[in-house]
Each structure stands twice: as C-alpha cells, then as structure tokens.
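Practice problem 4.
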C-alpha cells in the first residue's frame, strides 16, 4: 500500500528515524523554561546536561541512544526487502509492528520496567530480522 507515493514500510522508516528526536525532547521536557543555574536545560552544553540527568529523564536519554542504534538495521532491512521484491503487505505489516514495538519499548524504558522493556526489545529485533528475510 502506498501513501503519498511511499509504502507503509518506508513511512515506518521515517517514524523510526524520528523516535530518537522524540526521546531527546522527552528527556528535556519542561526544562526549557527553568534557568540553567537552577538545573534547567543547558543548550550551551546539552550532552553534559543530558548525561547529568537522573530517573526518567536519564532513561529517556538512554532510549534516545538505543533508538539511534536500532535505526540502521531497520532502514537496511526495509530497503533490502523492497529491493528483493518482498511481498508488500507482509513487509508493511512487519514494519508497522516494529514501530509499535519500538514505541512500547520507549514507554517501558521511561517507566523503568526493565524486564518488559528487554522482552519488547527482543521482539522488535526478531521482527527486524523477519523484515530482512521477507
């Protein structure tokens, strides 16, 4: 199925590429209006500021890093599947499932539900491999 000329799987690549940005925004949420000297967001040294966060903000930042790590394999798998002429409906469904699992993964990470998060990560990885071999 195509939407605006792109398959659902290609749209999923765009969504997955935006997930790290969403995680970074979540880690910074509510800290832009707070003064830097009071612990507010430091745009002069953002990486150090993020590295100094605790609890859910630190986990959102870690989810950002993991989202960047998951992106290349997903992009490659979708592109390879398209080039090899994969059955489009199956590819679209698997890509959609991957997006849902990655969103769930981020929510579980931020909520500090480590076991469930790891299980969802493993499922998403398996779906990614399935995309590659579709």
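Answer key:
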């Amino acid at each position: 199925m195509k939407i605006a000329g792109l398959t659902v799987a290609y749209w999923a690549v765009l969504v997955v590429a935006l997930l790290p940005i969403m995680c970074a925004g979540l880690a910074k949420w509510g800290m832009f209006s707070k003064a830097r000297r009071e612990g507010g967001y430091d745009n002069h040294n953002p990486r150090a500021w993020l590295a100094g966060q605790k609890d859910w903000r630190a986990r959102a930042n870690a989810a950002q890093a993991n989202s960047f790590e998951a992106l290349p394999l997903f992009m490659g798998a979708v592109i390879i599947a398209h080039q090899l002429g994969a059955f489009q409906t199956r590819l679209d469904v698997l890509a959609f499932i991957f997006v849902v699992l990655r969103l769930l993964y981020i929510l579980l990470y931020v909520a500090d539900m480590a076991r469930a998060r790891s299980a969802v990560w493993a499922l998403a990885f398996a779906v990614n491999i399935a995309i590659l071999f579709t």
